[in-house]
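Researcher: Please translate sequence to structure tokens.
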Amino acid sequence: MAEMLVETPQEVVKFLKAQHDLINDMFDDVLHASDPTARETAFHDLRQLLAVHETAEEMIIHPRVRREVAGGDEIADARLREEHDAKKLLSSLEKT
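Model: Translation complete:
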């Protein structure tokens, strides 16, 4: 993904949405890898991006949702539970 200077909340959202698209593409790369080494490399790259992406959401998006959105605590807590479950699944996949 090309570097992007993120200065406004709108740019943060745009950047994270672009990462969502990239993450979807990277899942396809893992699923359609031609051999075990390519699959392992694609999975490693995906896992690394997910870790960075989720950290950014936890540091920037979730606190803002909690402050500025009606029912923000419930929304942020639900996303955190989803992310926790996803991390457990990725960890399980990594062991196989």
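Researcher: Any highlights?
Model: The radius of gyration is 15 Å.
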